[in-house]
From TrEMBL:
Pfam families, per the entry: NLPC_P60
Key words of the record: Hydrolase, Protease, Signal, Thiol protease
Family: Belongs to the peptidase C40 family.
Protein name: NlpC/P60 domain-containing protein
A GO MF label: cysteine-type peptidase activity
Domain NlpC/P60: start-end pairs: 28-148
Swiss-Prot/TrEMBL GO biological process terms: proteolysis
Species in which this protein is naturally found: Neobacillus mesonae
Cleavable signal peptide: 1-20
InterPro entries registered for this protein in UniProt: NLP_P60_dom, Papain-like_cys_pep_sf, Peptidase_C40
Length: 148
């Protein structure tokens, strides 16, 4: 009887461990997929209100990329910031980075953190492009990050 109970307990422990690992693998998978979609659109021109490979604005690129990865996001940077995900202080690949003209205003720009101090974005000056998070323009405008 003790062996049966021990085997049953071990089965439950292993099952919960693999379930937890599966959730992390799924999260890593859709983050990776969203980044791949965004990178496939490098060079696409900026278009205010753009949500397709014909032209993207910042939130359009993020929404499109995560949508192709199976995650539905709100349309605007502000709605993504206030209505989606969990706030984080330490960036991981796939986290959304939010920017505003000053620390007291609502977000007006969003980008996807791709690791190694870089983010992918749709910027009005360069279209879909990769830049460093410590860029002299973006760094002082950073107001927070969310994990989807």
């Amino acid at each position: 009887m003790k062996k049966i109970v021990a085997v049953f307990a071990m089965t439950i422990i292993l099952s919960s461990l693999f379930s937890a690992m599966g959730g992390k693998a799924e999260a890593a998978s859709y983050h990776t997929k969203a980044i791949s979609v965004a990178k496939a659109n490098l060079g696409v021109p900026y278009r205010w209100g753009g949500i397709s490979p014909r032209g993207f604005d910042c939130s359009g690129l993020v929404k499109y990329s995560y949508g192709k990865a199976g995650k539905v996001l709100p349309r605007t940077a502000s709605d993504m910031f206030y209505k989606q995900g969990k706030r984080v202080s330490s960036l991981q690949v796939g986290d959304l980075m939010f920017f505003a003209p000053n620390k007291a205003s609502k977000p007006t720009h969003v980008a996807i953190y791709i690791g190694n101090g870089k983010m992918i974005q749709a910027a009005s000056s360069k279209g879909v492009s990769i830049t460093y998070t410590n860029n002299v323009y973006w760094k002082p405008r950073f107001i927070g990050a969310k994990r989807i």
